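Tokens for chain A. Residues wanted.
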């Protein structure tokens, strides 16, 4: 048992050493940073980095979830908040997007920290791009809205 524990410690240490330059002091973004969020100290940070090593962050970076951003910035989950908001408000957002204004656009502008009027105009002009069909997925809408908002 001691040998197994020792091997795990060595593997974790090697894993940490190889990624130390690639992440910030809080474990970076991804599943690990979400799983160990709110905890402090070297052990939770090490576990966050190790978890991020074991699981690909590609989805988090692509969708801007798990505190990741496609531009490499730590967003604190802006993409995740956007997607959660859109998932709960997709029908109303579609109506507001067609009009170029409304409560959902104002709320998204607040989440994304952009000008509401400009966002509304851009979303209205790109309505067909955002909603290419009636069965569009919330993840696709989220990516397109964040692209249009330039975040």
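Reply:
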């Amino acid at each position: 048992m001691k040998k197994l524990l020792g091997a795990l410690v060595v593997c974790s240490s090697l894993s940490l050493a190889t990624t130390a330059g690639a992440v910030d002091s809080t474990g970076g973004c991804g599943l690990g940073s979400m799983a160990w969020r709110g905890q402090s100290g070297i052990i939770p940070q090490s576990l966050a980095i190790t978890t991020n090593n074991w699981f690909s962050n590609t989805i988090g970076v692509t969708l801007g979830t798990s505190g990741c951003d496609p531009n490499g910035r730590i967003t604190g989950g802006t993409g995740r908040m956007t997607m959660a908001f859109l998932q709960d408000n997709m029908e109303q957002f579609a109506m507001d997007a067609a009009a170029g204004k409304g409560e959902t656009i104002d709320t998204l502008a607040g989440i994304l920290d952009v000008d509401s009027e400009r966002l509304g105009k851009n979303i209205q002009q790109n309505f067909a791009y955002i909603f290419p069909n009636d069965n569009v997925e919330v993840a696709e809408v989220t990516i397109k809205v964040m692209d249009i908002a330039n975040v």
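Residues 78-99 form the longest helix (22 residues). Residues 4-27 have pLDDT under 50 and may be disordered.
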